[in-house]
Amino acid sequence: MSHVLKALNAVQKVINEQGIAKSRRNQEQKFNFRGIDDALAAFGPLLADNGVLLSPSYSELTVEPRQTKSGGTTYNVRVAGTYKFTHIEDGSEYSVGPFYGEANDGQDKAVSKATSVAERNMFFLTFVVPHEPAIGGDPDAVEGEETEFYDIGPWLESIAAAETMDGLNKLANQLKDAKIPDAALRNIRAKWAAKAKEFK
Known about the structure:
25% strand, two-stranded antiparallel sheet, three-stranded antiparallel beta sheet, 45% helix
């Protein structure tokens, strides 16, 4: 067996013992998650200790502009990442992929976010990352809260852009007809109420 495969197996054994907890919290949609920083913090030292270098490469880049309700533009990006592990002693290599990442951003970070998602997916799927040993139970379960992902960004942008109370009331009517998870709707209503106070 090559040095790189032995090293990757050693990394996987440690990760499967300790897991990576979903310790980060999305306060708007009310769900727990593990980001790329959590993956790098867990895997970086293990790869270094076992003499493994990681080289990423990306392809299939697509960028899709999307108009927000407030008249702005966000950019939805998709990429495919492949990752090569190289052992520093014998130069043996092992490649995995493609792993896909998708992200949306209104500024200049959509590509960086998408590559981060792809890399995180690579780590979790390649090394079969568990979570129960670290935290127990279902890491996404939050009692009394809806954990389904829902992008409230466009609603918040529309609320912030409203110039009159009439405009806010029109948004309120649209919210009544929209199918929005309870936790997300509570956050949108809070922003609506805060904006409404500005017109009083």
